[in-house]
Amino acid sequence: MTDRFVVVGAGTMGLGIAYVAAGAGYEVELVEVDAGRAGAARETLGGLWDRAVARGRITEAAAGQARARVSVRRELAEVADRPDVLVEAVPERADLKRRVLAAAEERRPALLGSNTSSIAIGELAGALAAPERFLGLHFFNPVWAMALLEVVVGPATAASTTDAAVALAGRLGKDPVVVRDLPGFATSRLGVALGLEAIRMVADEVASPADIDKAMVLGYRHPVGPLELTDLVGLDVRLDIARTLQAAYGDRFAPPPLLESMVARGLLGKKTGQGFYRWEGGVRQ
Ligand code: NAD
Known about the structure:
Number of helices: 11
Oligomer: single chain
CATH topology of the largest domain: Rossmann fold
Mean pLDDT: 96
Strand order of the largest sheet: 3-2-1-4-5-6-7-8
CATH architecture of the largest domain: 3-Layer(aba) Sandwich
Helix content: 40-55%
Strand content: 15-25%
Number of strands: 10
Order of helices and strands: EHEHHEEHEHEEHEHHHHHEE
Structural class: alpha/beta
Bound molecules: nicotinamide-adenine-dinucleotide
Largest sheet: 8 strands, mixed
């Protein structure tokens, strides 16, 4: 029997996770409440497979099989009982995630994960009857291109659940790190620390954004500079995470005034066409 994988939320991350899971041979059920997004999900996924075929990354036959393994559902109640894996990728709001996870648990998944980038796994686990089966499965965007899976172990997560998540990473072609459930996990805590300092350096006029980024790309071999990365992630998203980390760790994560004022002026980065750089048609100018 084929293994079954449920993804809740067909947004940026949910589609990416569904794509990777179907490619790894899982029978995927993708749950999306929004009618428009649910309707577009198969087409968006189809476009990803078409591109992979055009670039020679996958054969046409394999793409066709993967495509056929994905079904779209409108609610969790329509999902078949006892899937092997269930991951939620709904928006980053604790109340919503807790509600979705409680409903997800009723489908009795062997492994239950949240793709949260900043909410404590322990806080989300409070909504569950069996928190030992639950942990953070933090994928990165775009899911098909990013090798990392950050496995976040909550206070009640069983060792066997962590082992299952590490095995899952291998099957999906991801390389896992296992981290404790502390705010910002490993990636956001370090990445945001660097990003906030780079923004303070812009305000101090140490150098232009392009030169600060170039210094890290050429001097430290970062694939992308901290300011360009902030533009890609979204300045509003980074501001939210900085505030969460400030509450947890104190003022070393205090958002720089420049970040606050750029967000207030709607300069959110790539998605609005202007952040530390100008963006046109998704390309940095
Ligand atoms: P998104 O807004 O693109 O997608 C969320 C989707 O969930 C939407 O399509 C929405 O209609 C759907 N949804 C809302 N309530 C639902 C429900 N009850 N049942 C089913 N579907 C529902 O969000 P995203 O960027 O994909 O982020 C999802 C999660 O992944 C968040 O927790 C975010 O923090 C995390 N994350 C995002 C990124 C990123 O770069 N975007 C990276 C890592 C982690």
